[in-house]
Amino acid sequence: MRNVLTLRVQIRFLVALMVFLSICCGGVMMGYTHKVEKLVESLVEESASAYQAAEALEAALVNQKGFMSYYIMDRNPEWLQRLGEYRQLFRMKLQRIKEGVETEEENLALQEIEAEYDAYVAAKDGALGLYVQGQVEAGRKAHLAVRQHFFRILSLCEAYRKGHEAALFTARKSVHVRARRLRWAMGFALVSVVLLGWGLLVLLGRQVLIPLRRLAREGTGERGVLGPNEVMAVTHRIENLVRSEGEAQSELARSRESLVLAEKMALVGKLAAGMAHSIRNPLTSVKMRLFSLNRSLKLDREQEEDFQVISREIGQVDTIVQNFLEFSRPPRLSMQKESPSTVVDRVLQLLSHRLRSYEVDVRVHRKVLLPEIICDPEQLKEVFVNLVENACNAMNGGGCLTILEECKPCDQGGGAIHIHFEDEGCGIAEDALDQVFQPFFTTRDEGTGLGLPICERIVENHGGWMRVTSTLGQGTRFTVSLPLRVQAIREKGENS
Hints:
The protein is α+β, with helices and mostly antiparallel strands. It has helices spanning 7-74, 77-99, 104-133, 136-220, 230-296, 301-328, 340-350, 352-357, 377-394, 451-461, 486-495; strands at 336-338, 360-365, 373-375, 399-409, 415-422, 465-471, 475-483. It folds into 3 domains: 7-205; 246-329, Helix Hairpins (Orthogonal Bundle), CATH 1.10.287.130; 334-495, Heat Shock Protein 90.
């Protein structure tokens, strides 16, 4: 199985290698610098002192040659005294040089100079002795031999001095060679660090930055809009994902609770439908028998009142059973073209007697008839009847029911119509508004709590929706919104 290095390991390896190379190159540079410094210092000190000593030997030797010539010219013994001083100076410098000699080669060269100098001094003393005795011609010939010894010593001193010059040159060359090596080492280190840095940037770019930028762009939802910091964008996106995940968990929990409740309600609905269907048949028989008894029996006033109460309560039970049946089974829509305004007028005409009995004044705000839509007029009539009856029950002492019709089409051919039913009744408490469309919720003692849920389901089956707003003690407003059909709008325009 092939081992795959993780991104963290690769980055750590490259960074460690860069640090290792930098430390090694720095150590090599420091070591070379220290060695070069020591080498130059030692070579310069030794070669310079030896070079200066060699020059001093040459100067002392040259001065001795001049003093002998001066004595021959004017026979002044002071020159011989000066000659003796420089001879002593020459030997002192020669001895000092010999004390600092480290190599055998230099020692042999100094011994040769010393031997030749002894011969030179002996020859020169012999020549001076001939001049002192008055043997000028013999002294001149001996002086020629002295000259040969002089030039021999001078050449040996020059050779010794040039040897140290060569040592200085060699040291200089060695320093240049070491400096060149140091430059090559530093150049190699720089190139290596640059290449490793480039490799690290490529690795970070391909494995980190490019995926981060891609993830950040996907998070923004726009390919061209991206902030300068991809890490911050990804961080915000991850925070949003975590927040969304928490919200999704909460929503999922609520959905599960709603699903459990819906399952329970479905079970209750099936049970209620079965019970309502089982109760309805004997209840119908009871109603028929009561109707027959009412025609055949002769009852006094009290019995007549009791009979009317029994009939009314049985009618209430029949209404409850009918609502259970309507709520438990989906309505069968018979779709056709109809204007909701026509349905509203039909409902007001149907409930005119009840509106007068409740002393309710109805005001319809309508500029023109609403356009025809595809709907089930009978189902819409049931919705509007329920809303009008609820308004009458809310305004028990009388009041005004305002019906406002609006049509809001869109340029794309859609839109919706809105019918508002606004009463001046007691209103609904704010904490109860969310429960208005829930089954079996009612604020009346004789209510079943199924009227508004049935109305909402009818409207939703038409593709619309219902809304309610209310202020406690001032009134309630129900809004029925139905979508406009594109075909109905187009046909209405052609017919006009």
